[in-house]
Amino acid sequence: STDLKFVSASDDQQLKIWDFRQCKEERQLSGHNWDVRTVDWHPRLGMIASGSKDNMIRLWDPRTAKTLATLRQHNNSVAQVQWNRNGRWLLSGGRDRCIKMFDVRKLSEEMMTFVTQREVHSVAWHPVHETMFASGGSLRSSNEPISEGRIEFWTTDNSRPRAYVEDANMSQI
Length: 173
Fold this sequence. Notes:
Helix content is 0%, strand content 54%. It is mostly beta strands. β10 and β11 form a beta hairpin. It starts with a strand and ends in an 8-residue tail after the last strand.
């Protein structure tokens, strides 16, 4: 039963499927070329999305440990991936200051790109309104953050944020 499984991502370029009941590793998923920063299990299908510092998003079959698709739409590290609740859309955010939205039915290209002035560290779908999401990020100068803790609020029909809160946190979101 997949409700007793979970997946972890690691700086060793691997994802691991774990059996929660037996507390043991079931299999490894290999294919990223650098640290794997984020992973999310599809809410309905047997599919996992992962994002890495190799700028790629990979979709996996957890039963076979095989890559189903590789998405190369980011130009820098992918910091987070997240499926929406119905599993139709996948969001990804990265250091390239872009949020990409993919439709699971046609993953060969992004459905929409949301451009921000900040590196994107996190994305999160609204728990009720499926066309709304938030992102968190920071501005950097020579790899040092100069402004952190900004939250931006988005809707899927607009490539610009609807609103934002500057300095929402003292550190990265």
